[in-house]
Automatic annotation (TrEMBL):
Cofactor(s) needed: [4Fe-4S] cluster
Highest taxon above the source species: Bacteria
Matches recorded under NCBIfam families: TIGR04053 family radical SAM/SPASM domain-containing protein
InterPro entries: 4Fe4S-binding_SPASM_dom (IPR023885), Aldolase_TIM (IPR013785), PqqE-like (IPR017200), Radical_SAM_PqqE_MftC-like (IPR050377), rSAM (IPR007197), rSAM_sf (IPR058240)
CDD domains per the UniProt record, alphabetical: Radical_SAM, SPASM_MftC-like
Keyword Membrane: no
Record key words, sorted: 4Fe-4S, Iron, Iron-sulfur, Metal-binding, S-adenosyl-L-methionine
UniProt domain Radical SAM core: residue ranges: 5-238
Protein name: Radical SAM protein
MF terms (GO), sorted A to Z: 4 iron, 4 sulfur cluster binding; catalytic activity; metal ion binding
Pfam families to which the protein is assigned, alphabetical: Radical_SAM, SPASM
Length: 366
């Protein structure tokens, strides 16, 4: 099993911050034009070499919009030829042509992920800040199916779409996606705390996700919703599907067909800085894109050295250092709460997950 103290399970590289969309929640606060300080192709090759040497984690190209970099396919080809599994999360813009997707397949990109934040154009386009985004996404997904490339849908749950989640599931199923990646909004970048759903709504959505996962043909995973793992374990304990031990392997949920293509599942719970690392367009290294606390820069220090030795990363990988109820919670090694949300709301990434309603046993006894 991969040792998260040494190597991440997943590396996210923000190739550029350039993007044609104006999403309400944009972590990157993306701009229309590329930053001249972006890592060069040669620097990207060196970074890929360093990533490969960290036990070949998954590599995801994000942005902004990675398609705004003309050399995106050259970088992808270098990484894939090296032996890395690479996927990409482009923005649904006119850049996503059938030819662009065909080129990605020729290079060997394993999967494309598109954001879909509502079952209708009205909801999705409002959230994305651009009219026509929904229709472009639908067209792009059609291209992916025609070219037989697996489709992942990313959805940010917020107050704008929490009331239409049943319709979202119907759409994800209709679109024959292999994975629905459900993000819970973190108020960073353009995201606002007022856009988030309440702690009680988080809990309701987690229970709904668990029941939904038992009947749909696609996989479901969460981002910035680590406490979903606690809900899954609690439900399985109630259903007597586990021994009662708190183990991450009992959290894994699969669709009815067991559709897992080797890209969506970690062997244990990933969290900010713990199995996860984010590299910005200018080489700054963060525990995640949603936790803007810089730990170093790959132009100055090798990625492995930052990931393994940075005090920030080391603290994040030690749940016993968490404060408040997260620090005493019996689920802390499996869950750990969103360190990004803790930082965004309290200013301290070791504080308790502020949108969790669970009271740990240790606190109930006192």
């Amino acid at each position: 099993m991969r040792d998260f103290q040494q190597n991440p399970f997943i590396v996210i590289w923000e190739l550029t911050r350039a993007c044609q969309l104006k999403c309400l929640h944009c972590r990157a606060e993306a701009q229309y034009h590329r930053d001249p300080r972006e890592l060069t192709f040669e620097e990207g090759e060196k970074l890929v070499d360093d990533i490969y040497d960290m036990d070949q984690p998954l590599l995801v190209f994000t942005g902004g919009d990675p398609l705004m970099r003309p050399d995106v396919y050259d970088i992808a080809k270098y990484a894939i030829d090296k032996g890395l599994r690479v996927s990409m999360t482009p923005s649904a813009t006119p850049n996503v042509t059938k030819e662009a997707i065909r080129k990605a397949k020729e290079v060997g990109l394993a999967r494309w992920a598109f954001s879909l934040d509502g079952p209708t154009a009205e909801i999705h386009d409002h959230f994305r800040g651009t009219s026509g985004s929904f229709d472009l996404t639908m067209k792009a997904i059609q291209y992916l199916h025609e070219l037989e490339i697996p489709v992942q849908i990313n959805t940010v749950i917020s107050r704008y779409n929490v009331h239409v989640l049943d319709e979202m599931v119907e759409l994800v199923e209709k679109l024959q996606c292999v994975l629905w990646s459900v993000f819970f909004l973190v108020p960073t970048g353009r995201g606002k705390e007022t856009d988030m759903i309440s702690p009680v709504e988080h809990e309701k959505v987690f229970h709904w996700l668990y029941e939904t996962s038992k009947r749909v043909p696609f996989d479901i995973k969460t981002t910035a919703g680590q406490h979903y793992r606690r809900v899954v374990l609690q439900q399985k304990m109630r259903e007597k599907q586990t021994t009662g031990e708190i183990r991450y392997e009992d959290v894994l949920m699969k669709g009815l067909n067991g559709q897992v293509d080797g890209l969506g599942r970690a062997p244990k719970g990933v969290n900010d800085g713990n199995g996860f690392v984010f590299i910005s367009h200018i080489g700054d290294v963060y525990p995640s894109g949603l936790l803007p606390v810089k730990a170093g820069n790959v132009r100055e220090t090798p990625l492995a050295e930052i990931y393994r030795n940075s005090p920030i990363f080391q603290d994040l990988r030690n749940p016993d250092k968490y404060k408040g109820k997260c620090g005493v919670c019996e689920f802390r090694y499996v869950c750990g709460g969103s360190r990004s949300r803790a930082y965004a709301v309290t200013g301290d990434y070791l504080e308790s997950e502020p949108f969790c309603v669970y009271i740990p046993k240790a606190w109930r006894k006192s």
